[in-house]
Here is the input.
Amino acid sequence: MSIIETLSRDAAQAAKTLAQVDTQTKNTILLDMARSLRDNSFEIRSANLIDLASAEQAGLSHAMIDRLTLDGDRIEAMAHGIEIIATLPDPIGVQRDLSTRPNGLAISKMRVPLGVVCMIYEARPNVTADAGALCFKSGNAVILRGGKEALHTSKVIASVLQKVLKQYGLPASLIAVVPDPDRALLMELMQQRDTIDVIIPRGGEGLINFVTEHSKVPVIQHFKGVCHLYVDKDADLDKALALLLNGKTQRTGVCNALEGLLVHSEVAPKFLAMAATALAKHQVKINCCANTQQYFAAAQVLSDEEFGQEYLDLELAVRQVKDFDQAVAHIHRFGSRHTEVICTENELTAKRFQRTVDASVVMVNASSRFSDGGELGLGAEIGIATTKLHAYGPMGLESLTTEKYLVNGDGQIRA
Amino acid sequence: MSIIETLSRDAAQAAKTLAQVDTQTKNTILLDMARSLRDNSFEIRSANLIDLASAEQAGLSHAMIDRLTLDGDRIEAMAHGIEIIATLPDPIGVQRDLSTRPNGLAISKMRVPLGVVCMIYEARPNVTADAGALCFKSGNAVILRGGKEALHTSKVIASVLQKVLKQYGLPASLIAVVPDPDRALLMELMQQRDTIDVIIPRGGEGLINFVTEHSKVPVIQHFKGVCHLYVDKDADLDKALALLLNGKTQRTGVCNALEGLLVHSEVAPKFLAMAATALAKHQVKINCCANTQQYFAAAQVLSDEEFGQEYLDLELAVRQVKDFDQAVAHIHRFGSRHTEVICTENELTAKRFQRTVDASVVMVNASSRFSDGGELGLGAEIGIATTKLHAYGPMGLESLTTEKYLVNGDGQIRA
Here is the structure.
């Protein structure tokens, strides 16, 4: 049996043990994990320095190195994240009644773990702790396959968590790390559909496409975030401006930042004049339709096909729309089903937007930047799904579970 | 653009229209579809005769020809099935509140269609009507790719449904039939991950494996049904016998029939004597462990590796287990996560079984034969998932939907 087969089989075996552990024990273990991360801060940072040295030698980008770096604050944030997971309600075992059939059979559903979750990610060592804790709380084993850039750090973090598991008599293979970033092992990992229940890739579009292309295990995908703010004719324009600036400038390199602004023609003259001044102050580069060029100095005019870019930078696409329907049509053509926002004081228009727009998060009068698991009250998130099967949008604990049917009778047979 | 690309793109486009149609209109259309199937009974049966003639010429098995045949009763059953779907609650638009955040943001979830569902199936023409109606009610477009054996019948059934859609100004491509059973088209269909949201194969293990192997679109799998009855030491043995006979003999060629019997050693002598007589009357062939051979004349003794067969016939595997844990271990090793049954009067043991056993339907004192969508109160079913992602067990309307997040604020921005 190969390394990967052994790892996956052991994880599946370990998951069966964990499914029987009660909530209180799981929470106690999580709190111990948090404490243990703090206690081992020195070891984690030492391993991180090795990864950082290789990263600099390899000439990785500043953004990549930033993501890779773990300082005291970030380790504290990881530990605190695990403490929050300990306070969240346990989805496992939750039961809901469906019906009692005419023959007396009582039908209900019970929430159960998926089994084995495999995370494939790049250079974020915090995923190791976040995913480890979320999967543990939701009763799943996790197989962590991080990029080679963060491998030393990930291994130390995982070994800290594993030590705690062992103290409670639980198998270390509940939180398993693929020990080698070799691509052949990754390919083999993606074939283990008898033992792995789901693969969640986190990273750039290239990684997601690669995994989707090669995996025989079901994949939950998180594609890019091309999020829009639609300023309706009934918008409060001051609110709209605040949402625009927050969505575009508060943090740019993230998938829930705004990439597009749509403005109803009735309020376009007034709002675009306000927006132009404010965006210029933040040095936001503007790409716009021919109708709105007049408001922006040095804007680049986009053709109809050039909308829909994920800039991940101080750059924004702007378009005037003649009405609600044109706004929704634009969103459906160019959006990525991540997060879409309307600014309006008209409740009917707001409801219509939320019902009509096909995106995982549809907001009224709120910044797109709230679109993440923590801000939506899910605790940490394991990812944000932009495809619809199983999960759609930020994925918390419940997304790592499924439901089985329970049928209770007193000897009923089928006629 | 190829036939398949056009078909899939049209279906995705049509799905957007359907997402906006209200429940009452959908139900009216469904009732019209049922009426129209009855009115076109002659045309459907004529097409069916063509398929039956080819099937006989091709020497298809009796079971296959039986599945293919549509008589008046079966057309009536199809029509009635659609009428039941019209009476079921519409999952679309159902909203549940999650929380109000400290900053005042109200978080909720709204149920929405998946988009485009693709059914790949073999010779059952009724799938065309069932899947067409279930997908329509749940707001999805459906692409139907049936086997060549039933193609004439399926096309006529679909065209009857499409005519009704057109009468209401809806696109016929909501219920699309792949017009040609060519394998190259099937391969192409399974690559359309930009337009098709899920593929549900229905048929034998070969078909399911083929689709899983080649599809780039997410697949919901329905593998075989290796269902067990565990007769606990606290079982009512008369109930147990009734459950055994019903599960094994009421209908044999189905996935929710019993294939295995596990008996606690304490009640084995008494129960196996009862079972042997009754099973002999029904001419059930017995394969058993060495410990139980004494009870069955002419039984074949199975080695440890030979359990876990899906017989789909009057044939049963019997094993004596020393306790509850050994029963569960056997189920986890040899079961197919379809349906597992315990017979016991001990409520604690029953609860423990339902919590512990990893299967999509876990029953107490009820026949495994109840494990289908209709019997569980879901109305018709689109399939039975034996993998856990998205759906697990019989899939009704809700399984054809997902939930998006709604966020409602009054101008909140992120600090």
Notes: The mean pLDDT of chain A is 94. Residues 204 and 223 of chain A are 8 Å apart (CA to CA). The first helix of chain A runs from residue 3 to 18. Chain A touches chain B through 72 residues (CB under 8 Å).
